[in-house]
Write the structure tokens for this entry.
Amino acid sequence: MQLGKIESIWRYPVKGMRGEEIPHVYTGFTGLMGDRVYGVIAADGLEGFPWHTGRDQEEFVLYNASYQSSEALLEPEDLELFEGHGTGITPIYPEAEAFKVSVETNEGKTYDHIEDRAFIADLEKVTGRTLRVHMTQRGQHDCRPVSIFSLSAAAKLGEDLGMHIDKRRFRANFYVEWDNQDDPFFEFSLVGKTLKIGDRLEVAIVERDPRCKMITLDPDTAEETPKLLQHVARKHGGDAGVFAAVLRDGRVNQGDAIFLT
Amino acid sequence: MNHTGQDQSSAGPSYHRLTVQAVREETPEARSFVLVPERGDETLYRYTAGQFLTFRVPHDEGELIRSYSLSSAPSTEPDMMVCVKRVAGGRGSNWFNDHLIAGAHIEATRPAGRFVLRGSDAPLLLIAGGSGITPCISLVKQALVETGRRVKLLYANQDAASVIYRETLDKLESRFAGRFTCRHWLDDDRGFLTATDIAETAQGWEQADGYICGPDPLMDLAEKTLVGLFDTGATVLTERFVSPDDPIRNRDAEAPSAPPSDALIESFRLTLDGEDHTVPIAAGETLLDAALAAGIDAPCSCTEGHCGTCMSWLRSGDVSMSTTQALSKRNIERGWILACQSRPSTSAPIWLDFDL
């Protein structure tokens, strides 16, 4: 049964920075290719959550992170050959060099590569923290490798609060449009179910997405609106969107249909 | 900006037992305590120079929570060391000096704090007052041994007898001649430091990383002066001694804490959904707990200071926070607090606004 479709696909080259919308992407067991490949770790961060993000420096969500070889990072070469061996065969990702990501700060300063020493030195100067960049092609997610959020949920939250709620506040990988028009938070009802997206990808919806201060930040201004998180806490148990685990890897395209299996 | 201890896990701060390996008298009023973790806990106590520990003090009048900076440095001492200066009426600092002996045990959280070296080549200009030397000397040692950075310290005390770590500072000056200078300032001889004195010390160091720790008046003056003098983009970090559950723990001006049975205020004003509430609050209770107990649907989620859901605007009054982990520097400057971590810290009337 078709439930809806993929409205847009987003990945975040650097955890906490602005994401990029992409037309399609290979989604493996560790998430979308190129998603949260880099993160900035603070020496004084919590042991279980050492990341420097907009929680610590609001303007961090305005930093633009762009892969220099974005096209090459949409799917592994020879993907079909790997898929031919069946589910569970992990295709070879491009070399680390292909994952070079350039950064532009909210003040317009640019760095060719996030791993350039100047980037961290300047960020340390701005934040007063001791920081380092950490990179792994497997992605660095808070909870689960794939996050899903509906446009209807964003619209309803905006309606409740009397303000426009930009979907990008929720930093999801897949923004979706549900066919169900009765329940704006339809994704909550899918926890425990398995979805097929497009021709091949299968995901299990494993849990609701518990939210924190990050959704209070306007993705264009970094101004905070605590009222949004307060509303989500009081009306939806603090959750917005759902997390998924990948059961069968595959390519996802913008506009792909979503089916209940 | 108050600096507070941070939780280390979602279950709140966890304390581990430390053994006092040695106690050293630094001045008639200040002692250093060398601390070693239990076997197996060593990795929990890896720290960065400039950080602090938060202790659970088994005081006769009830448990106290106190934070003290590490004066040791990972590069120069094998064990952790804090230095605690006795303060008139200071229950935590006096307990340390009166009761904590070699061989005794005390519980502490893991090291925390952001008053640490940045990864840069900029020289360091530090301004310390009294026991504010503790995190500063840690930074000085680490910078001198681990980097090639130049370091200058302006260290203010009331008199010569009050100077903590005098011998160590002299040795560092000798060993790192050309890279490290320490300018001692004694109030009894020259009066309190002025902005002019600080500016004179900072002359030629406008591109340095600034670090300030000491009594509030000195810190306010030094911070204002350095920020005005330093080049755009230069960093000035401050360390103020405010710790969980007790806002009056400035080591140089520590005042007696209110005993748990004495509430500083009996109620506070809370605004939510356009309605004003008068919320009764008991001694030691957080603003959030008091609101929930009063039947108010105050926004909250983790209640441990991590998620930020109970971020609210402190329109008036004073609070201390056990952790500010979910708050940025900008949040704090704008007056946001975490209701789940906030307790009244003075008798000033509190007005908490969730509607902003």
